[in-house]
Amino acid sequence: MGLSRQCLKTGCTSPSVATLTYVYRDSTVVLGPLATYAEPHTYDLCHRHAEGLTAPRGWEVVRLTTDSTPRPPSTDDLLALADAVREAGRARPGASRDRVGAQADDQARHEAATGAVEVGRKGHLRVLRDS
Predict the structure, then answer these.
(1) What is the pLDDT of residues 16-63, one digit of tens each?
(2) pLDDT digits (tens, 9 = 90+) for 50-106
(3) Both 48 and 80 in a single domain?
(4) Do 15 and 66 belong together in one domain?
(5) pTM summary value
(6) 3 and 65 part of one domain
(7) Which residue in 34, 49, 108, 113 has the fewest CB atoms around it within 10 Å?
(8) What b/e readout covers 63-86, taking b as 16+ CB neighbours within 10 angstroms?
(9) Are residues 79 and 54 located together in one domain of the fold?
(10) HEC profile for the chain?
């Protein structure tokens, strides 16, 4: 699960859905889908600011086809977040349950409920295989 990037505009807390790039040599502003990585000299914009974008006088705006509507978190993201929160809660020193036993119980419940089998683990993240 990755963290979403926020809009570049000051005071805007909306998630970014498009990336703006200036091509100075061609006097062009390119507005396209959100870039995979935040890069220097590119600017992330939310839906509202991407739709209202204007270019300096004499410049051309190129709008690449984008689905600029914000996407809701997927259930996988929400489940991963819930699992991380549960594990962080179990990590407190002095907890009454044995941590290893609690993890085994959680894993057995998860496997029974979803049919997914854990094949690896790194920290609080698990690699699951569908059965």
Answers:
(1) 899 999 988 889 999 998 888 878 889 999 989 999 989 889 999 998
(2) 999 898 899 999 988 656 555 666 667 777 777 777 777 775 555 555 555 666 666
(3) no
(4) yes
(5) 0.48
(6) yes
(7) 113
(8) eeeeebeeeeeeeeeeebeeeeee
(9) no
(10) CCCCCECCCCCCCCECCEEEEEEHHHCEEEEEECCCCCCCCEEEECHHHHHCCCCCCCCEEEECCCCCCCCCCCHHHHHHHHHHHHHHHHCCCCCCCCHHHHHHHHHHHHHHHHCEEEEEEECCEEEEEEC
Number of domains in the chain: 2
Domain boundary among 54, 70, 86: 70
Residue corresponding to tokens 């996988």 = 76
CB 119 within 8 A of CB 127: yes
Instruction: Count the Cβ atoms, other than its own, within 10 Å of residue 7.
Output: 21
Please give the structure tokens belonging to residue 59. Answer: 């410049």
Domain range for 115: 75-130
